[in-house]
Amino acid sequence: MKGRVVKIWNQWVTVMVPEGPVLARPRGKLSSARVLVGDEVEVELLPDGRGIIRRIEARRNQLERPPVANVDRLLVVFSWESPKVAPEWVDRVLLQGEWRRLAMALFLNKGDLLVGERREEGERFLSLYRQAGYPAWMGSAREKENLEPVEGFLAGEGITVLAGESGLGKTRLLNALYPGLELKSGVVSEKTGRGRHTTRHPQLLPTGKGWVVDTPGFSRLFLPPVEPHELGRLFPEMRERAQECRFRDCLHRTEPGCAVREAVHRGEVDESRFGRYLQFLEELLAERKKTF
Ligand SMILES: Nc1nc2c(ncn2[C@@H]2O[C@H](COP(=O)(O)OP(=O)(O)OP(=O)(O)O)[C@@H](O)[C@H]2O)c(=O)[nH]1
Ligand SMILES: [Mg+2]
Ligand SMILES: [Zn+2]
To answer: Within a domain: residue 218?
Structure first.
């Protein structure tokens, strides 16, 4: 029968079939190292209630960190204090998602810590991303504040991955939304303001019609493997305008007739986002120099 891999632990793969979870092991040419959380598999039930995984269905996509297959959505979780997010990190996550054509939304957690000026700064940061076309909300897992839009985002069919560095409250957010899960949430180190990677293995958790993956935090993110002239397509607010650039492979740096730079000057594309685009572009160009 067909099932979904929800957890992999110590060579054992938990497969959710219509009747419930089955502990299974891959057989034949398959090794458990090749199975990913999120995989759809063909599993054969044994008399003792355990299962054998016979086949992995073709994957629609896959994330490397965390290793998850068949992802539909990405919820980018971050905070503006304890710790304060590096804007560049948000953009790098979004690029990874754009490259895989995932639906994405942003959640600025720990909103309860933000007052006055700090709160306005956080709101302003979010509005940059709304302007770019992403749903973006501020709220608090601790105070259960403004969690409804997040719940709505997670409620659809398919798999949502939570992306966020350690200690941002991803697990606490899920506990607030789905108290039945009783996930282990950690404490931010007072010294560093950073988390401690409390969540270790990715697993799929039920949200109703779909699944959510509570991922261990990660900090370093590489750029997707695109050609320099394709980078701008991963910025939704630049994508359409780039079609009006004089040159098809315009890098939006110093080329004449660049519609993207014009949009930046008119304030239609945010300057700080554009600045990070230029920075990532340099990074891609430098990488190319190394390989040729
Ligand atoms: N003030 C405040 N603290 C929060 C909020 N959400 C989470 N925290 C705290 O932040 C710390 C880290 O929370 P976790 O949920 O473990 O963070 P995580 O993102 O799952 O971290 P990793 O599993 O290490 O990736 C805990 O001390 C939480 O209580 C919030 O909305 N407000
Ligand atoms: Mg966690
Ligand atoms: Zn251009």
So the answer is: no
Ligand 1: residues with CB < 6 A are 109-110, 112-113, 140-142, 164, 166-172, 185-188, 195-199, 216-217
Domain boundary among 213, 246, 278: 213
Q: 240: domain range?
A: 228-291
Question: Among residues of the chain, what percentage have pLDDT more than 90?
Answer: 77
How many Å is the Cα radius of gyration of the chain? 21
CA separation, residue 121 to residues 114, 127, 164 (Å): 9, 10, 20
Give residue 191's pLDDT. Answer: 46
Are 88 and 198 found together in one domain? yes
Check whether residue 49 and residue 67 sit in a common domain: no
**Pick from 2-6, 137-141, 216-220: least confident:** 216-220
Q: Is residue 134 part of a domain?
A: yes
CA of 200 to the centre of ligand 2 (A): 8
Look up the pTM and report it.
0.91
